[in-house]
Q: What sequence folds into this?
């Protein structure tokens, strides 16, 4: 549970911790994810390891490349591997919280066995321009098919680029 100061508390079956700092990863979902990790640690019989200092130290330094990873150059890039509707909804919430003032372009590659409409729909109101790119591997959705699905889901055109670097250079 998060409190008004931005800290949060966790109550397990045998342990309780209060005044924990927010995890370093972006998004409100990270508190839920951290709580799940603490529950697993306690369930494994390692509850003695659960101290505020250890938890704050571990979650405070945590980085996951590709999970709402901000890269600032002359433009701001948000790298995220949202691969299902739930993770796309979290990405949409995080983008909304970021409050970027300019146009947003999404460069998208998705595997063929994924729910393309379910991934695109939560993002559709936040994205101004779409670019489909091919992924490597036999499970990849061809960029032409992906672009068609994105255009159908969003009622916006979707460009096709040969690669991610190519999509970024065309901007």
A:
């Amino acid at each position: 549970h998060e409190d008004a100061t931005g800290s949060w508390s966790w109550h397990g079956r045998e342990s309780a911790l209060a005044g924990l700092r927010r995890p370093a990863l972006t998004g409100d979902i990270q508190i839920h994810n951290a709580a799940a990790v603490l529950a697993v640690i306690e369930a494994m019989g390692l509850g003695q390891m659960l101290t505020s200092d250890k938890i704050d130290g571990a979650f405070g330094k945590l980085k996951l490349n590709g999970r709402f990873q901000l890269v600032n150059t002359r433009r701001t890039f948000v790298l995220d591997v949202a691969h299902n509707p739930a993770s796309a909804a979290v990405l949409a919430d995080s983008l909304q919280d970021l409050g970027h003032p300019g146009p947003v372009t999404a460069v998208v590659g998705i595997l063929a066995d994924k729910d393309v409409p379910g991934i695109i729909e939560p993002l559709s109101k936040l994205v101004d321009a779409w670019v489909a790119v091919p992924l490597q591997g036999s499970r990849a959705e061809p960029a032409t098919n992906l672009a068609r699905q994105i255009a159908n889901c969003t009622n916006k055109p979707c460009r096709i680029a040969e690669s991610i670097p190519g999509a970024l250079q065309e901007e």
